[in-house]
Write a sequence for this structure.
């Protein structure tokens, strides 16, 4: 879903950029010939102007594409960083967690040099020792799911912070739910490539 | 918990001879009254207060505290005022005198009107220092052993985690000080000598061993995944801890001399943490999620003969954790979810009878004192998670720590003189 959105926005941005260029060429002020008697130099001037405008269009297109890549790279990074959430004392992946993980898979596949560190967290209830184990079990469950979708095992590392790093303070279910999570840290690539298909 | 027998091989023998020598008949149901006579010197009042408080916290002796006028009457130049001491209900009186090399101790049996015990204690520690207090706690423990046959627990300490550091506190709540660097340490535990501790770290994930006298720490095990809840074996030769990466968390053992960890438990993807040895070192009690929720199990020290200890049918939100095997081997203390919170219970290993020890607030992480009669645990009953001490015989409790929240306490074995 999110992958498709990224691809689509890339395409739209490219079209808009080209369109903008074309309009710029058309609306550019008419060149003023200083030497109207020289047909050769006039032709040369027109040729140079044409070449300039093509170069300008190409440059604009390149800049737009780079901006688009940057933007889709940012979107891809955001998708990779999206947290998944768990039920109390459980490590099984709910539907919302699976959807979040499904969105990460094509990005990971499109960026084979990227590694992902998965950190499991728990809410404050229960013992610190059991919660460290539970957090590890959650991270491992996430890793198992991603490898089952084709991401290489060696690119995924797991760790647990147990209950030691709550995302939010509080002792109600809403706070607990936000704290029962797996977090993601991508590394290994300066810029992410958005999936092309 | 740690084997007291291994630490002090002569303690049983000492109990018998001293009990006979003092000639008091100790009835566990009643506490002998003991007067600590005024102590000379500038630190005298402190000496007296420390020993009286140790008797009080030990819950086996009734310290008879006298006002200044009566105290000066009780001890005259010629010796104990026997009629007054008898009238006060004292079974014995204790005279501690600071000397050039330490303390001189005299114990008087009020019933026989005789000097029952004379002993000299050497210490070069400065008055009020940590070591000086430890020397006095040692005297109080000797006295408790002489009066009751059971050595006191005054010269012990408790480790705990507070603000990303491991701290230690004396058994009477004094001398709170950090022992580890700031980091992510958790689950401290003592070696049988009381000189070395082990603890886990979350980042980097590993098991550390720290020498308390030098303050130097070294890494015993580390790697990917989690490392949790290390404890020394009762002979001090190895450390058992929980570790896992992508296939559950199991218990491992590693020799203190180093080398790789060897897996003990077979959790098949479940969580197995919080080990505690039986005093003889043959069994390990631990928490496992193998039945779908946390319960307490026992196994042989090599990982075989696993047995569910806690009944499965206690409640809907079954969650039992943090087991600690009592030093006398009879009980396992643990925490159980009860009424939406946690309480500390014991289970008797012979008949599996349960006893709930706490009900005020949320109470967790019990750790036995070496006398097998006192427990420390974490409670939020005062509003903030603090350590409390409970006498399981009388139900009497006292607050041990104050200030910022704490967790994962570990009570030391009886400590050597410093």
């Amino acid at each position: 879903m999110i992958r498709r959105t990224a691809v689509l926005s890339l395409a739209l941005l490219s079209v808009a950029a080209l369109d903008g260029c074309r309009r710029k060429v058309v609306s550019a002020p008419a060149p003023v010939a200083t030497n109207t008697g020289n047909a050769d130099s006039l032709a040369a001037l027109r040729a140079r102007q044409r070449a300039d405008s093509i170069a300008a269009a190409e440059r604009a297109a390149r800049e737009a594409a780079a901006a688009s890549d940057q933007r889709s790279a940012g979107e891809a990074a955001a998708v990779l960083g999206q947290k998944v959430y768990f039920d109390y004392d459980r490590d099984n992946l709910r539907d919302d967690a699976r959807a979040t993980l499904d969105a990460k898979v094509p990005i990971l596949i499109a960026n084979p040099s990227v590694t992902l560190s998965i950190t499991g967290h728990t809410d404050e209830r229960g013992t610190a020792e059991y919660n460290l184990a539970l957090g590890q079990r959650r991270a491992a469950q996430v890793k198992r799911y991603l490898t089952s979708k084709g991401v290489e095992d060696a690119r995924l590392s797991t760790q647990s912070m147990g209950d030691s790093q709550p995302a939010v303070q509080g002792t109600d279910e809403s706070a607990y739910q936000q704290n029962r999570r797996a977090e993601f840290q991508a590394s290994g690539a300066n810029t992410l490539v958005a999936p092309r298909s | 918990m740690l084997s007291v027998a291994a630490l002090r091989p002569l303690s049983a023998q000492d109990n018998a001879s001293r009990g006979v020598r003092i000639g008091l008949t100790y009835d566990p149901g009643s506490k002998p009254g003991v007067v600590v006579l005024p102590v000379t010197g500038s630190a005298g009042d402190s000496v007296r207060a420390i020993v009286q408080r140790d008797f009080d916290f030990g819950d086996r002796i009734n310290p008879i505290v006298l006002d200044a006028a009566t105290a000066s009457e009780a001890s005259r130049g010629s010796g104990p005022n026997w009629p007054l001491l008898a009238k006060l209900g004292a079974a014995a009186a204790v005279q501690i005198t600071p000397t050039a090399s330490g303390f001189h101790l005299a114990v008087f049996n009020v019933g026989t009107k005789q000097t029952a015990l004379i002993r000299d204690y050497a210490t070069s520690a400065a008055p009020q220092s940590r070591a000086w207090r430890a020397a006095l706690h040692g005297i109080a423990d000797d006295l408790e052993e002489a009066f009751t046959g059971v050595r006191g627990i005054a010269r012990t300490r408790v480790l705990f985690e507070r603000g990303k550091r491991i701290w230690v506190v004396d058994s009477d709540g004094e001398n709170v000080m950090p022992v580890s660097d700031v980091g992510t340490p958790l689950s401290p535990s003592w070696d049988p000598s009381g000189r070395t501790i082990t603890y886990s770290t979350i980042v980097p994930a590993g098991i550390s061993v720290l020498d308390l006298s030098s303050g130097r720490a070294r890494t015993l095990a580390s790697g990917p995944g989690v490392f949790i809840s290390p404890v020394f074996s009762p002979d001090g030769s190895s450390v058992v801890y929980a570790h896992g990466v992508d296939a559950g968390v199991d218990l491992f053992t590693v020799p203190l001399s180093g080398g790789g960890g060897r897996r003990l438990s077979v959790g098949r993807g479940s969580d197995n943490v919080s080990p505690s040895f039986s005093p003889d070192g043959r069994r390990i009690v631990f928490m496992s999620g193998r039945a779908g929720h946390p319960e307490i199990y026992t196994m042989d020290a090599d990982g075989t003969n696993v047995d569910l200890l806690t009944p499965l049918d206690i409640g809907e939100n079954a969650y039992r954790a943090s087991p600690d095997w009592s030093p006398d081997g009879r009980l396992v203390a643990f925490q159980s979810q009860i009424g939406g919170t946690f309480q500390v219970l014991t289970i008797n290993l012979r008949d599996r009878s349960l006893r709930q020890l706490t009900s005020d607030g949320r109470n967790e992480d019990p750790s036995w004192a070496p006398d097998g009669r006192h427990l420390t645990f974490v409670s939020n009953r005062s509003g903030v998670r603090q350590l409390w001490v409970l006498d399981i015989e009388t139900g009497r409790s006292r607050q041990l720590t104050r200030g910022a929240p704490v967790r994962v306490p570990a009570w030391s074995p009886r400590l050597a003189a410093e």
